[in-house]
Design a protein that fits this description.
The chain has five helices and four strands; from the N terminus they run E-E-H-E-E-H-H-H-H. It is an alpha+beta fold.
């Protein structure tokens, strides 16, 4: 049992980021999946590797916090490719949350009843995606959002449809 993973192709990589008073260490591990094991799981037809990220974060003089995340993926067992994919995913996620918090003031929403919060969250995300696709208009998402509310021609441009 102790050597169950010994024959798997293993790769590891460590990164350290510092800034804004915090230090983050990330330890990436990726294992290539043997073909025999992948064949046992037809529900994952493109399964090529398993990844794990251990992150330790220290903010100022506080006690370090840590988390572990696991991934089943179709990437080849190349640790730097895996690390870029994981960081890229969270970069996109964090960028979207920042836009929703700052430009749409989502955290200040007072809608709390029934399906309202979830429905408005979907509408905000759709609006953010549509506004980000507009590469012609200058200004940030908040300015574009206001312009779409004031100018029906611009709103039609963002929606890609003719209104009325």
């Amino acid at each position: 049992m102790e050597n169950d993973f010994a024959h798997w192709q293993q790769h590891a990589w460590h990164t350290e980021d510092e800034g804004h008073g915090r230090v983050e260490h990330r330890y990436y591990h990726v294992l290539g999946v043997p073909a025999a094991l992948a064949a046992q799981h037809p529900e994952w037809p493109d399964w090529r590797s398993v990844g794990m990220v251990y992150r330790e974060r220290t903010v100022g003089a506080q006690e370090p916090s840590s988390e572990v995340r696991y991934f089943i993926n179709s990437l080849p067992p190349k640790v730097k490719t895996f690390a870029r994919a994981v960081r890229g995913h969270w970069g996109i996620e964090n960028s979207l949350h920042w836009v929703l918090d700052v430009s749409f003031r989502e955290d200040e929403s007072r809608v709390r009843k029934d399906h309202g919060p979830e429905n408005l969250a979907w509408v905000r995300r759709l609006a953010a995606v549509l506004l980000k696709q507009d590469k012609i208009t200058k200004g940030g998402i908040a300015c574009q959002r206001k312009q779409a509310g004031w100018d029906n021609d611009y709103l039609e441009q963002v929606l890609g449809a003719k209104l009325g």
